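Fold this sequence, please.
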Amino acid sequence: MTTVRQRRVGKGTEEAEDQPSEEKNVKPDGKILYDHTGGKLWNILSVTVGGIVAISLGLLTSVYVATLHENDLWFSNIKEVEREISFRTECGLYYSYYKQMIQAASIQQGLHGLVYDNKTESVRTINILERMNVYQEVFLSILYRILPIQQYLEPVYFYIYTLFGLQAVYVIALYVTSWLLSGTWLSGLLAACWYITNRIDTTRVEFTIPLRENWALPFFAVQIAAITYLLRTHLQPVQERLTLTAVFIATFLFSLTWQFNQFMMLIQALALFILDCFDMLPTAKVTRLYIIQISGLLLVCALQFFNSMILGSLLLSFNASVLIARTIQKNLKKGGLLNRLGKLVLHVLLVLCFTLLINKFIKKILNLESDEHIFKFLKAKFGFGATRDFDANLYLCEEAFGLLPLNTFSRLSDTLLFCVYIFVLFLMTVVAVIVAFRNLSGSNQVQLMEKMEECTITLKPDAAYNLIHTVLFGCLALSTMRMKYLWTSHMCVFASFGLCSTEMWKLILKCIHLYTSRRTHVIKYFIPIITLLYISYKFWPGIMDELSELREFYDPDTVELMNWIKSNTPNTAVFAGSMQLLAGVKLCTGRTLTNHPHYEDKNLRERTKQIYQIYAKRSPEDVYKILRSFGTDYVILEDSICYERRHSRGCRLRDLLDIANGHIMDGLGENEPDLKPALYPRFCEEIKKNLPSYTVHFTRVFQNKTFHVYKLAKHK
């Protein structure tokens, strides 16, 4: 297993711009405090300073995570094979395609190798560009080849520096979103500081660099910033068109770089749908955003050779259903409260029925089953019946797909982020409920417009969108820990916005009968500055200690295995083993695999379940036949899986295989009544005894403390 060890010795406060206010700042005698020109110059100065702070914080974040990565692994000093092993599990698989493109004789040959790939899955030729989201690796490899930097920068550094550079884009986008919402860049500064001090819960880029979400989330943050700006009132037509273009580009790049894009954008579409139903967003802008989502996803679908999983996505079905239902119900937003509620219920049912029908029809036509494991997992996770499905249980037993641990909230509270977030969320939710009720209960158009005008003072469309966004993604994070990074980063934005919001403090002070304009402005700046000082005082020493801690990559067993494979097996050899290890085998040695961690394909899932019988209670003849059916030459057994203790009984890989095969699990504990004792001992344990029934099919050719490699006999 990959570990790290201690490295051996030897080698001025801002006067921010305010939100536009209806009250004019005048002297008692009626003279204006500052003229138009002075105000304009001050705004330009404020925007300039705010922009410089944003860019500086983004660059500092990039340097920070890059330094942590270097300090943690001593990346600049370790061997190439160790660098590649540090890209664990699916990260190694994705990086291998970048390496493949770099090493190809030409760009055309590299692309041909990806489109007609026969090394990722043995005895099959697959289109990597269709199956996986690796266009970013393709683009980066082409860029590296055409730029005159080969003599100064190694390919691996060009790759990781690009990802660390995207962190700058991410932080700047969060900063700008908070700034747009509150009207002061002090809010953006606070959001960025919270993002950095809560790094453990806001990003994992420094140790999972090639992971798809590290490519996608910066573009998602840019998209949210653009949507926030788009939802502002009184935009000029040119501004609106430019902003829509920015939204489209960000949506397209987000969709292109992450296979789970459709699920994230479905939640976003649901947020737009809810707000539109309650008259809290302009319908025309919501429609354009639906169309942008559809067009962005379809463009990605075309680039991925019409990937059927995209065509069968719930997002496309949902957005199409909303547009169809809206066409049918033209008078949805007219009438009294009860009339509106009745229409709203009918509209929701109509959209739901259309979504299911359209999605079912598309999947039937395309014979689509690529995403069925996700729905099996969700069904089991939320208690709609137990399952013995191997794929669903594989997800259910992984900590990353479990509920968000409670200690997350204590860490977030240490920086005051979670406390402020809950406070702002509560107030904004109350306001949103009141606004929604007022919108639904308008009796005539004039009265409705008056009330809408009043409501926009307390809950503007951009704030309403970010409120529903954070609520829905919060629910996702609470249910699935891996998705917390979508929530915690936006939590920084939302909390800082609330703390610097004129409208929020105005509401609070009015409720306790202490409101004055001056008092509101003082509190709006004083409390965020005190919060920033507290964060700096408490966490700056810890950040400095973290940056000074030096460790070293240490995984000699895996290094030994990879070096042995490269030196002692032919280039055409086919290897079987765990998904996680085989991704490293492909990256480090270039050998052909039987299976890999990119799980969004039904045939691959079936193949993986079959390959994993090496850890089940099966006869040597059965295992040999299974492995040879996939062209296997060598099989790698891992003691960490065969004798696994990381998971509890019932969640160990060998237990999942026993349950799927109808066998009683090992160890003390209950078993389901219909499970039966296996006829054979566990293969991965028994093969080490060198019994004749095993040695006739398998010959051990390599072993160390962690791995055992067996060569398969080639019987006629």
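Residues 39-162 form one domain. The chain is about 65% helix and 5% strand.
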